[in-house]
Amino acid sequence: MQKFALVVPALLLLGVFSAQADVYAFSYTGYNSVEKITIYGSGTFTTGTAYSDGYLRIISITGTTEAGTITGLDGSGGGVDADPPSYYTSSDGGGAYYYDNAFLPGSPTPFTNNGLLFEVSSGSPYTPINIFSVAPGLYEYSYGESNTGSFTAAPITFTATLTPEPGMYGVLAVGMIGLLLSVTKYRRRCRQL
């Protein structure tokens, strides 16, 4: 019974440290010199399964930008054969974006040159917004419709940080309590001998 009491907390702790959380807190800032406005945004995005090249599929996004509330990923457009697959959209009647909504954590280019495409509540000209990697550590932010003349791009500073899943803290607490109880019980038995 004593061995079982030590094994269970150890397995719980191992499960906590081997589980990969998939929620990232992000923020970006920049300046659009054409329209003389500060660009900013923050929120979270959730990743799903990985593509064969290690990029993770972004499956949802929430947050706010200078243009309004983020309402979700842009899912329009047709697929282009690639891994991760890229898409071409011509939403709002004319403009076009390539995107793949793929993210590679820990990379100097965590987005591809197609990048992340999401919608915001304010509508045109800010919808959709596209964030993509131009070079290691260099990101670009684009919005509007390229064929209607309202397309604008500006360099931004982008960060994304992995956030732990809320349930992780509960599992960690249970594991630590079990470990503490096991050690206390072991010490009592040693004193009795």
Give me the secondary-structure topology.
Elements: H1 2-18, E1 23-32, E2 37-50, E3 56-65, E4 68-73, E5 78-80, E6 86-89, H2 91-94, E7 97-99, E8 102-103, E9 116-120, E10 129-135, E11 138-143, E12 152-163, H3 166-192
Antiparallel strand pairs: 1-2, 1-12, 2-3, 3-4, 3-8, 4-9, 5-6, 6-7, 9-10, 10-11, 11-12
Helix pairs in contact: 1-3
Give me the count of strands.
12
- Unreliable stretches (pLDDT < 50, length at least 5) are 11-19, 146-150
Q: What share of residues is helical? A: 10-25%
Give the SSE string. HEEEEEEHEEEEEEH
- Look at the structure and give the mean pLDDT: 76
Derived structural class? alpha+beta
Briefly, what is this?
The chain is of the alpha+beta class.
What can you tell me about this protein's structure?
- It contains 3 helices and 12 strands, in the order αββββββαββββββα.
- Strands 1-2-3-4-9-10-11-12 form an 8-stranded antiparallel β-barrel.
- The chain folds into 2 domains: 1-20 and 166-193; 22-163, no CATH class.
- The protein starts with a helix and ends with a helix.
- Helix content is 25%, strand content 42%.
- The chain is α+β, with helices and mostly antiparallel strands and 193 residues long.
- It is elongated, with a radius of gyration of 23 Å.
- It has helices at 2-18, 91-94, 166-192; strands at residues 23-32, 37-50, 56-65, 68-73, 78-80, 86-89, 97-99, 102-103, 116-120, 129-135, 138-143, 152-163.
- Mean pLDDT is 76; it is low at 11-19 and 146-150.
